[in-house]
Write a structure and sequence with these properties.
about 0% helix; about 90 residues; mainly beta
């Protein structure tokens, strides 16, 4: 799933309980994935990637990811986000 310069996917690393986000933009703004897990379906979680363009960040393992979206943060404007998807 892609939103702005961010790409997120789940399952990641072979686990349905992991999500990844890659920063594909060289503008200095971070990428993030917002997601929900099965065992805490009412809690929105955020995985940040502040390591720079071309890098990928991975969440820790946990209960199954049930929906997620990719976002590219814009400092002074609304974030560019994909729609919510189920893995």
């Amino acid at each position: 799933m892609t939103g702005g310069g961010a790409t997120a996917w789940s399952p990641a690393g072979g686990s349905a309980g992991k999500i990844a986000v890659k920063d594909g933009s060289d503008d200095g703004d971070p990428a993030k994935a917002e997601y929900y897990r099965h065992d805490s379906a009412g809690t929105k979680r955020t995985l940040w990637n502040k390591s720079g363009p071309g890098t990928t960040s991975y969440s820790g393992d946990g209960s199954k990811i049930i929906k997620f979206k990719a976002c590219h943060e814009n400092d002074w404007d609304d974030d560019d986000c994909s729609g919510w998807v189920a893995p």
